Amino acid sequence: MDKIRIAIAGIGNCASSLIQGIEYYRSKNESDAIGLMHWDIGGYKPFDIEVVSAFDIDKRKVGKDVSEAIFELPNCTAVFCPDVPVSGTKVKMGRVLDGYSEHMAGYDEKRTFLLSDETEPDKEDVVRELRGSGAQILLNYLPVGSEEATRFYMDCALEAGVACINNMPVFIASDPQWARRFKEKGIPVIGDDIKAQLGATITHRTLADLFRKRGVKIERTYQLNTGGNTDFLNMLNRSRLASKKESKTEAVQSVVAQRIEDDNIHVGPSDYVPWQNDNKVCFLRMEGKLFGDVPMNIELRLSVEDSPNSAGVVIDAIRCCKLALDRGTGGILYSPSSYFMKHPPEQFTDDQAYQMTLDFISGKRQN
Fold first, then answer.
1. Segment 135-163, tens digit of pLDDT
2. pTM of the complete model
3. 164, 227, 243, 358: least CB-packed within 10 angstroms?
4. Are 322 and 137 in contact (CB under 8 A)?
5. Are 23 and 71 spatial neighbours (Cβ–Cβ below 8 Å)?
6. What is the pLDDT of residues 40-55, one digit of tens each?
7. Would you put residue 147 in left (φ > 0), alpha (ψ -120 to 50) or beta?
8. CA torsion sign, 208 to 214 to 219 to 220?
9. Dihedral angle sign, alpha carbons of residues 67, 71, 73, 76
10. What is the dihedral of CA 334, 336, 337, 340, to 10 degrees?
11. d(CA 305, CA 299)
């Protein structure tokens, strides 16, 4: 089948894991392809994806082939496929806007962004690049809090006629105005805020759903996350966290039997621990009442490599988005969004979202 041609805004750890994964699974077959939720989606395999355009603002990445840029600092994720072949796609200078938090300037160079002095593109430049590259889908991998920058790239994609997967907690698919624009243009969009393959939020949701099904009332809960990548460093600026906290909190609230009072639920990033690099550690506690109002609690510690955890989901989201393009389906893709994202336009339980996505892949559901 034809390649799925993607563009990426933000060549950080998540993009590194995705691009490594595309090459890693090229040498696999279905029987030994560990770590995938789906081997085949509508005839597309994991390696049927090609990066044809890329944007970043770090001077160590701009101008380099994506196969080289994904291993440049400050990227620090696991290298599980070191031999990514030269792609011929060079990283272009991106638009900065609010994609860079000033507090990061004071950190060690190997931990933070080094802004390129190349001229930033305007909207016409990005639209021209998207069209000229033949990109079919744009992935948003910008840092948390990049509200203006995300809207800039979404606007460019709409003008270029390119589908979007919004992996970040800036509300696009779940914003009625943006959703209307994608629908009017007949362009598919999946969003918002990628839900890891087996991460803190999906684990928290699963336990919350279990409490509901077993008649246990949740009275209090927290999810505290630490990590050492640039994402966690960026999130030390608490002013950038509003949409992130809302996204993660609503992902849990949406599956509980009775909404938890705001003071009794805390879900969100907690601290930056440099030596953790791309490893993310989640500390989860849930307190509730059993039969006879008898109290109980559960505590869990989860440790995962953050970016491969994301890539395992995005590689499916890309292929579902391509199915929509093949079928001529535009606007919000509700089924994939509900399964792959923390803050979709409409929340469903994970069991429901899973079946909806299977039905979308088979063609039983259009979106």
1. 999 999 999 999 999 999 999 999 999 99
2. 0.97
3. 358
4. yes
5. no
6. 999 999 999 999 999 9
7. alpha
8. negative
9. positive
10. 160
11. 20
